[in-house]
Design goal:
Elements (H helix, E strand, L loop, with lengths): L23 H18 L3 H7 L5 H8 L17 H14 L1 H21 L2 H13 L4 E4 L15 E5 L2 E12 L6 E8 L2 E8 L5 E2 L14 E12 L11 H35 L1 E2 L2 E2 L4 H29 L5 H26 L10 H11 L6 H13 L6
Parallel strand pairs: 1-4
Antiparallel strand pairs: 2-3, 3-7, 4-5, 6-7, 8-9
Helix pairs in contact: 1-4, 4-5, 4-7, 5-6, 5-7, 7-8, 7-9, 7-10, 8-9, 9-10, 9-11
């Protein structure tokens, strides 16, 4: 953690003094998550990334901090504010997008639908254990042929007496290889339904996706459902339309708007420190105009993006944040974070492509963040429809 700049001097790490906009409790949470990231994640993340694996017990350690489903009320969840959740996402993603993704999937994509649309029995059964990390969840919506258009899903569930028989497959499922339950969305005769399916159910499998060059510290799988039979008590009773999964995506996209600024900050701070130490032509490269131009662009974009995320968080806590406004944050913050990572890599030169520095890892991760939870193109069209009133999706 850096020390604030002396009075009257600009702080290169907090140029607009955004820290002053946080409450004392928010700053304490930030410091707690940042310390955990520094002590537990950063010393290991390069190895985890290179190996393509993260220890499952890390989820339980994060659960002990109260960060899993932290923005939900009751059932063992912390009941924290939306801003608190955003700050946690930022600090976790400053370490690695894959770690933040694991937490986002657990809280916003697996726990949130149970909390919002589940029965009381389902909430009592799953949420307290998911909040501690004892039970890990995943979210099955995307399919190989239904990514940006989830309404085109082929996975279907057919009623059979008191049971449902589910067939289909899902793709690009974070947490899938080690999840204990999966929230799977399927077509039925009366709309799109969600089901909470234990992953040891006969006919259910989660083959891991190998060979990823991005988000390697986040394990990913397919989900295959071959005549999976579940009782009606596994169905989420509170929703029967695409509103269910789309509301979950909005929750996750909100966290991404914050998280992307964490990855961007890590790249900027690495590049700034490197530029001050790297000597060429007899002086630090921080003294050259082209390098300063890159650093200034990065600093301005991070301060602006963090202010956007904070504003969205305050709006969410006041109950007036719309999905379109969430798209604004995801759309702009992720594309700017990716540009910042690329600029930082150029400042580091050849050193920028190694795991000794975090920049290339963040840059590769952000290529995935740019695509998932709605591609940049989809968010462009969401915003376009919001300002014109005209849908241009097909």
């Amino acid at each position: 953690m850096h020390n604030p700049a002396p009075h009257g001097q600009s702080d290169p790490h907090d140029f607009l003094e955004i820290d002053r906009l946080y409450t004392q409790e928010e700053r304490m949470l930030r410091d707690t998550v940042r310390r955990f990231s520094s002590d537990r994640i950063l010393p290991n993340i390069a190895d985890w990334y290179e190996q393509g694996a993260t220890p499952v017990e890390l989820a339980r350690e994060i659960g002990k901090l109260g960060l899993l489903g932290m923005h939900l009320e009751g059932y063992g969840c912390a009941g924290a504010s939306s801003v608190d959740y955003g700050i946690a996402c930022l600090e976790l993603e400053a370490a690695d997008s894959g770690i933040r993704s694991m937490v986002s999937v657990q809280g916003s994509l697996a726990m949130f639908p149970i909390w919002a649309y589940g029965s009381e029995e389902q909430k009592q059964e799953w949420l307290p254990r998911m909040a501690t990390g004892e039970v890990i969840g995943c979210f099955g919506l995307t399919e190989a042929d239904a990514g940006s258009d989830p309404s085109g899903m082929r996975t279907h569930a057919k009623r059979d007496g008191d049971d449902w028989i589910i067939n289909g497959s899902k793709m690009w499922i974070s947490n899938g290889p080690f999840a204990d339950i999966a929230v799977v969305w399927a077509r039925t005769d009366d709309g799109v339904r969600g089901f909470v399916i234990p992953t040891d159910t006969p006919g259910f499998s989660a083959p891991e996706i190998k060979g990823k060059l991005s988000l390697r510290a986040s394990r990913t799988s397919e989900l295959v459902l071959d005549d999976v039979r579940v009782p009606d008590g596994f169905r989420l009773p509170g929703v029967s339309s695409m509103r269910g999964p789309l509301s979950c995506l909005s929750e996750a996209r909100y966290g991404i708007a914050w998280g992307a600024m964490g990855a961007a900050r890590a790249c900027y701070e690495t590049a700034l420190a490197y530029a001050k130490e790297r000597v060429q032509f007899g002086k630090p490269i921080a003294g050259f105009q082209l390098t300063q131009a890159k650093l200034v662009d990065m600093m301005v974009a991070i301060n602006r993006g963090t202010l956007v995320a904070l504003h969205l968080g305050r709006m969410k806590d006041e109950g007036r944040l719309t999905p379109e406004q969430v798209s604004f944050g995801k759309f702009d913050n992720v594309r700017n974070a990716l540009a910042i990572a690329r600029q930082a890599r150029s400042i580091l030169g050849g050193n920028g492509i190694t795991l000794e520095y975090p920049v290339m890892r963040h840059m590769a991760n952000l290529e995935t963040v740019y695509t998932y939870e709605g591609t940049n193109e989809i968010h462009t069209l969401i915003l376009g429809q919001a300002i014109t009133g005209q849908a241009a999706f097909n």
